[in-house]
Amino acid sequence: MNFIKKLNVKKEVIFFIVIAIIFLLLHSTPSTAIRTKVFFMGYPNAAVTSPIIDDEYHNEVDNDKFAELNAKAYTLTKPPIEKATQGELRNYLVRKFGFLHFAEYYGEG
């Protein structure tokens, strides 16, 4: 009986380690953070296939704000189309916390 408890605890620890590793990998670079965000927004095809480039316009215009946030803007060159508004989900802001990157939709403005 004691052996089974130890086995279950080992399985739980391994499960949580695997989840932590996956999380770290999905947030290790700006592009993987954007792809993860787009995937979980419900656009898996765009998350995998759309090229990502620096958003030079927003990075220049909002330079001071981005420096304060430790962030940088990126653009999907083949963005997904939002179902409700038919708008392109093109621009994303990636903030860096330590060695992790987190993306959020930035909009057009």
UniProtKB/TrEMBL annotation:
Its recorded name reads: Uncharacterized protein
Q: Which organism is it from?
A: Bacillus salitolerans
Source taxonomy? Bacteria, Bacillati, Bacillota, Bacilli, Bacillales
